[in-house]
Amino acid sequence: MRTTKEKGKKIFDFDIVVIGAGPAGLMAAIQAASSGCQVAVLEKNSRPGKKLLLSGGGRCNLLHAVSSYRELASFYGSAKNFLLPVFSRFGYQEAADFFRGLDLEMREEKEGQIFPANSSSFSVLERLLNKASDLGVAFFYGNPVVSLETSETSIVAAKTVSGNLFKGKIFIVATGGLSYPETGSTGDACHWLEPLGQPLEKFSPGLCPLELADKKFQSLAGISWPEAALSFPGKKKFYGSLMFTPSGLSGPLAIDFSRELRGKKFPLMLKLDFFPFLTEKDLLEELETASQQNKSLLKNFLRSWLPERLVLFFIAAASLEPSRPVSSIYKREWGFLVSLLKDWDLPISGLSGYRRAMVTLGGFSLNQVDSKTMRSRLIDNLYLAGEVLDIDGPCGGFNLQACWGTGYLAGQAAAAQKEEKGMVRRIK
Questions:
Q1: How far apart, in Å, are the Cα atoms of 21 and each of 24, 49, 84?
Q2: What is the C-alpha to C-alpha distance for residues 1 and 38, in angstroms, rounded to an integer?
């Protein structure tokens, strides 16, 4: 690193400048420094990894155990093909080996979720920072970047709010998206890179609760259901556990399904199935069989099938009397109740927004980024990594997996490019 002064402002000179000290930025810095590069990390916050510390409720679901890189890529929707070369080089096994190399003990929980053995996201951040420090990475905290200075061929420096300049041969942008803005993810890179021609896909919140338009559902707040299915009318069903909130739906099913609502106009209607592994015919037969010779009242009988408040809600929706003897319920009345349980209309008014979204849908367009290196196809010495890209996966460690993978490739490729000469493509 070389430091000079000009008109009271400091000018720092590094091989590689990484903007953003989140998961992707830290991984990129470590990989670049491992190759002998002088690396600076600029972070707008007073401390690094604020969003990483929140991940998994503070426990940090850092990976998902999927051994096949092709299967792993299949979880990312339209980004699948882009991520194939990423995960072929740094997929689950490679990432797990990397963290074992940092002496991080891990354990696998339900459905392949990988957490640190001590359930502490701080232990993950601490090991990343220690590794970066051992490699000589220089961190500059409380240094928000306000602009990028360019020549006609490339980026030459990042200017911070203090007026200081950080020059570099290569720049890696890993500033995240818009989710959890209190952690510093406020879409800053859009203001620097869009004017330089780097195309951006429209942002929207992802992995967030759903808002319900009808206030009558507020009476169900706090009710959870272990296995339900959500779908658009007539479309593929998505399965998982569900929880009602004062404003709508949460739980893994609703949160994962929110990714399907990208680009949709609200309000819209969804279908909810409380018994997705029973057909209407089977559910009707089970209810009728259980009700035969039963002397219970309807409200008491249904408590073995549903939580009490849901029982009262559905009895009212079916225009039945709670205190009616179950033996007096007609087949057509059972049929109507079953149709509500299997095909319930849910009017969705919108998503809960970035403050509660785990990820951002949208970001810099993948068709202008080299999937083998994370290098911009438009700006010669620019690399992009992490949530700043138009990549999103479901809950369960997939989004951190994408950060580790894209950060790894960006750091490796940036270090390799440092020795290249004659960057000639012009910024459009």
A1: 8, 6, 25
A2: 7
Could you tell me if 275 and 242 are in contact, meaning their C-beta atoms sit under 8 angstroms apart?
no
Q: Regarding beta strands 248-250 and 268-273, do their DSSP bridges make them parallel or antiparallel, or are they unpaired?
A: unpaired
Question: For residue 72, is it left (φ>0), alpha (ψ between -120 and 50) or beta?
Answer: alpha
- In one letter, which amino acid is 266? F
Identify the H or E element spanning 81: helix 80-90
Beta bridge partners, 250, equal: 243
Residue 13: Cβ-neighbour burial (10 angstroms; 0-12, 13-18, 19+): middle
CA dihedral 189, 195, 196, 198 (to 10 degrees): 60
Question: Rounded to whole angstroms, how far apart are CA atoms 52 and 58?
Answer: 8
Locate 14 and state its tokens.
Answer: 């590094």
Alpha-carbon span 376 to 371, nearest angstrom:
9
What is the spatial distance between Cα 368 and Cα 375, in angstroms, rounded to a whole number? Answer: 9
SS3 content of the chain, % helix, strand, coil (to 5): 40, 25, 35
Least Cα distance to 403 among 428, 385, 390 occurs for 385
Positive or negative: CA dihedral 22, 23, 25, 30: positive
76 close to 402: Cβ distance less than 8 angstroms: yes
Phi, psi (degrees; rounded to nearest 5) at 423:
-75, 115
Q: What is the DSSP string of 8-47?
A: TEEEEEEEEEEE--SHHHHHHHHHHHHTT--EEEEESSSS
CA torsion 290→295→300→306, rounded to 10°? 10
Tokens in use for 96? Answer: 């797990």
pLDDT single digits (tens) 133-159 = 999 999 999 989 999 999 877 999 999
How confident is the model over 42-87, as pLDDT tens digits?
999 999 999 999 988 899 999 999 989 999 999 999 999 999 999 9
Q: Binning pLDDT at 50, 70 and 90, where does residue 263 land?
A: confident
| Amino acid, single-letter form, for residue 28 | A
pLDDT given at position 6? 65
